[in-house]
Amino acid sequence: MTKSKKSLKLGLGTRIYLSMMALILISLIVIGISTYAFFQNRNEQFHQNRLQQQENTIMLSLQYFTIENGIREVNAKLENKIHELAEIHDVDLNVYTTDGDLLGSTQVELFEKGVFSKTLHDSILGKLKPNESIVKKEQLDGEEYLSAYFILENGNKKIAIINLPYRKDSQTMQNEVSSFLLTLAQVYVLLFLFASIVAFLLSNYITNTLKKISAKLKEVRINKKNEPIEWNSKDEIGELINDYNRMLEELEKSAQLLAKSERESAWKEMARQVAHEIKNPLTPMRLNIQHLQRTAKQNPEELEERIQSIGQNLIEQIDTLSSIANEFSNFAKMPKAQNEKVGLRSVLNSAIELHRNNGAIELDVKGSDHYVFADKQHLLRAFTNLIKNGLQAVPDEREPEIKIFLEKTNSNVVVKISDNGSGIPDELKEKIFSPNFTTKSSGMGLGLAMVKNIVIAAGGEINFQTKVNEGTTFTILLPLSSE
Questions:
Q1: Euclidean distance between CA atoms 348 and 470, whole angstroms
Q2: How far lies 17's CA from each of 23, 24, 53, 240, 304, in Å?
Q3: 355-383: b or e for each residue (b if 16 or more CB lie within 10 Å)?
């Protein structure tokens, strides 16, 4: 069921296009029906008017006839007059007595065959009034026709009832309507094609604009400059784009405030860590100097021996302070990257040489040398730091073993640096790349944070897998150089 629903799901552009086409098609159908109804009504009105004209003409002629002749002459000559008028005006006429019995007709054969009744229905006789006519719709051979009835008078005396049947020329009307509808259909086909093209272009215009906005929304990042969309029309889409551009401005301000807050928070934490690390060697230095002062006062003969031992201890603590200062300086003042095409085999070999005497280090390269576009010195510093960390992570009872693996996969170069150290506990994994994280008893813990910054600056990524008491593997992915 879900699959069928997905298959019937239409895009916005298609829905807009189909909706517009449906509206156009419905409007054309409504216009066609209205046009046909108009023709029908006009045709009906035409026949009504024509019957009225014929009725008026016949009525005037008969009135003149009754005025010019007496009652007896009218009764004697009426049937002949009816035939005369029917021939002149090309109509049929039926004459009935005032009681509704057939008196004469121009279509006697129809009465003889029983098609028409020779007696008027009471409904007609009951409605007839002097100086008024009634029109009835009747059927003959399945064809509808109009039939007018009026009273012929001489003065105030009723002489006869005249019936004027009027057959509609429906074939002429149908031919006229068919011809018009055929012409209208041709126009509608052209109009429909034109409207479909306009609807297609309009729906594409709307959806392309929305796709442009959608593409821009997908590109929005909090850590980079987002370009606003240019739009000149002051319409609903323009309002949407203005809201989007305003959102970008607010996002940029929020990103700046967030970055400032994060920097301040990071430096505060860094300052706290620096103070803590500096305080560690200062405390034993203070105690040693105080002990030396007491020795000078109480046991001057032991002063020289104490100076040697305490001096050596002070030098070690000063070296610790110097190491902290250097590490912090390297992290805070890393020079701008000078990117170039760099072969990773040579960089890894240089890093290995720096620690060759500290343990067994093995390099395995799949294929020839692999090149990336990055700062060579930064990469050397990163690899050196990872190798050094790996060596220092090995317990004293083990021989350090570092394995480095280099290969190309698709469009990336993969570097894996594995050690056989103590591993990283689960509770410390999330802090591994934090600027103040360290598992060592001394140092600032800035090395891995610096390594991550170098890798990201080169367009790569770094992650790790670790097992407690077995070791850790750091994996670096760097984009393959296209130059």
A1: 23
A2: 10, 11, 53, 21, 99
A3: beeebebeeebeeeebbbbbbbebbbbbb
Beta-carbon contacts of 380 under 8 Å, excluding residues fewer than 6 positions away, are: 347, 350, 351
Residue ranges, comma separated, of all CATH 3.30.450.20 domains in the chain are 10-173
Sorting pLDDT into bands at 50, 70 and 90, what band is 439?
very low
Place domain 10-173 in its CATH homologous superfamily.
PAS domain (3.30.450.20)
Chain-centroid distance of CA 387 in Å reads 50
Most distant CA pair in the chain, distance: 181
pLDDT of residue 6: 44
Question: What would the pLDDT profile of 162-207 be if each residue is shown by its tens digit?
Answer: 888 887 766 666 777 778 778 877 887 888 788 788 878 877 877 7
Using CA atoms, how far apart are residues 119 and 48, in angstroms rounded to an integer?
25
Strands (E) in 287-400, as ranges, are: 340-343, 360-365, 371-374
Give the Cβ contact number of residue 473 at 10 Å: 16
pTM for the full model?
A: 0.40
pLDDT at 237: 72
What separation, in Å, do the N-terminal and C-terminal C-alpha atoms of the chain show? 51
Q: Which residues contact 89 (CB under 8 A, 6 or more apart)?
A: 54, 57, 58
Q: Based on the number of CB atoms within 10 Å of its own CB, is 182 exposed (0-12), middle (13-18) or buried (19 or more)?
A: exposed
Q: Are 437 and 380 in contact (CB under 8 A)?
A: no
Question: How long a stretch of residues is the chain?
Answer: 483
In CATH terms, is domain 340-479 a member of 3.30.565.10?
Answer: yes
Instruction: From residue 211, give the alpha-carbon distance in Å to each of 15, 56, 196, 227, 287.
Output: 15, 73, 22, 16, 71
Condensed to tens digits (0 to 9), the pLDDT of residues 83-94 reads 888 888 888 888
3-state secondary structure of 228: coil
CA 428 – CA 420 distance, rounded (Å): 18
CATH 3.30.565.10 range(s) for the chain read: 340-479
With beta carbons less than 8 A apart as the criterion, state whether 464 and 432 touch: yes
Q: In terms of Cα–Cα distance, which of 323, 395, 319, 401 is closest to 358? A: 401
Q: Which residue has the higher pLDDT, 136 or 68?
A: 136
